[in-house]
Predict the structure of Arginine deiminase.
Amino acid sequence: MVHYVDSEVGRLRTVLLHRPGAELARLTPRNNDSLLFDAIPWVGRAQEEHDAFAAALRERDVEVLYLGELLAETLAVDEARAELTETVLADRRLGDTLRVSVGRYLADQDPRRLAEVLMTGLAHQELKPGPGGLVYEMMDKLDFVIDPLPNLLFTRDSSVWVRDRVAVTSLAMPARSRETTLTRAIYRHHPRFAGSELLYDPGLERLEGGDVLVLAPEVLAIGVGERTTPAGAERLARRVFAAGLARTILAVPIAQERATMHLDTVCTMVDVDAVVMYPNIAHTLQAYAVVADADGEPRASAPRPFLEVAAEAMRIDRLRIIDTGLDPVTAEREQWDDGNNTLALAPRLCVAYERNVETNAQLERAGIEVVRISGSELGSGRGGPRCMSCPIERAPLPMASPPLGGIAPLEVGVEATENGLGFA
Ligand SMILES: NC(=O)NCCC[C@H](N)C(=O)O
């Protein structure tokens, strides 16, 4: 099984999605802020929108894997089951009496139902018969014994592939931190991923997948802001250099605000040399170019304009920008609604939310084909097509020029095609 991603735009072959389920029905006006949703989604409609997204990908020959299914299959492995049960029971809010009772409940579930509980959580009133004990008695019947994970929908953030390695990330927000226990278990125990080496681990410094862009073979950009810390970027750089997976990493400071929670909320790639980007920051965004010194340690140079540093690292003349919206107000509205958060299926072919009318028109004027999907309900969690997808295999792109540092491209069968770019 090939797992390989060396760009943002190489033809997408396999992707990990999560079809939203009952975990979305846990959202209420009391908890939506802490669970990182801006509204209460209509679950059935969100599922329809998501099914249409998945269908659009399949129609274009993309293999769609579902996190829920992989998790259920993973839980058939005893070691994975024990590991994930233990993680849930380690929650110090439970106390001993409730812990024993939750442990028994989990042990009684078959892999499919256990996967559902791990994703959807468990409400106090669902644990029957109640175990008694102080903790249980003092809980409200609507409280959660196991918290739900409504942000599983955004598979981009909990893992990211860099060439043939997968980085299981370290999520910053408490509402999301348990997500990576699930992705980690899948990559470690599911037979499909047997032999995959983990490049990063949830116990390390904060790092989220939405901040990691594979700009070109051997060039990564890492947003540093609300979610990813400088220490997370440095740790990933060290590991990527040690594994010979990249020669330059750009650390890109972004405002620590909800509107710009990840780098992919302001900038995504739509061609080998083009990004759709929020114009209000395009020319002020800076980047620190990080390379390995003689000992393999990451060394950063002084910050310079992102667009310049990126083009240099990618060995192209210019990184073309396609603006979000037409005017500053439309740009602000469409950036908020994930107009920048496109998912490239191949160079010059991307998936975008239909509601971002002006941005999509700009993309088309620039020669990018746009597959429009509706996302009125999906978008209530503040994420678009890129956030909702974790590419596992993309057709490789050629190196921009012969590698200078002696890092050889992997032998993974670059397709010979008419345009020579490895995509049909
Ligand atoms: N890459 C992304 O921007 N992902 C969107 C994550 C949205 C989610 N509600 C969160 O706040 O983490």
